[in-house]
Amino acid sequence: MEFIWFLIVGALSGWLAGQFWKGSGFGLVGNLVVGILGGILGGWLAGKLGIFGNGLIYRILVSAGGAWVLLYLISLVKKSE
Questions:
Q1: pTM for this structure?
Q2: Tens-digit pLDDT profile for the chain (81 aa)?
Q3: Which own/partner pairs from 7-11 qualify as long-range (CB within 8 Å, at least 24 positions apart)?
Q4: Nearest CA to 47 among 62, 57, 60?
Q5: Exposure class string for 39-78: b at 16+ Cβ within 10 A, else e
Q6: Residue 23: what pLDDT?
Q7: Which helix (H) or strand (E) holds 54?
Q8: What pLDDT score does 68 carry?
Q9: What is the pLDDT of residue 25?
């Protein structure tokens, strides 16, 4: 059941990050991948910055923040090509 919640939070946070970033994201599957990777990145960054919390809203915000950072890094790579 945790894995299903992880996918739902990843998809939601990927969609949310795509809405705040230029464009509308990468579609459903792309947003899911960006959200999951962003959740991992966001969780790591939050731990390094000493930001801890619990709950669904915290997970979504951290995951969306990580997805936003990931989208920023992807845009830097695309600009260099």
A1: 0.76
A2: 777 887 788 778 877 777 777 655 676 677 778 888 888 898 899 999 998 888 888 888 888 888 888 888 887 887 777
A3: 7/32, 7/36, 9/35, 9/39, 9/56, 9/59, 9/60, 9/63, 10/35, 10/36, 10/38, 10/39, 10/63, 11/35
A4: 62
A5: bbbbbeebeeeeeeeeeeeebbbbbbbbbbebbeeeeeee
A6: 59
A7: none
A8: 86
A9: 60
Q: Which residues touch 20 (CB under 8 Å, ≥6 apart)?
A: 64, 68
Say if CB 21 and CB 68 are below 8 A apart. Answer: yes
Scanning the chain, the segments in alpha helix (DSSP H) are 2-20, 27-49, 56-80
- pLDDT score, position 34: 82
How is residue 15 written in tokens?
């969609």
Would you say the C-alpha torsion 16, 22, 27, 33 has a positive or negative sign?
negative
Taking CA atoms, 57 is separated from 29, 50, 79, in Å, by: 22, 18, 33
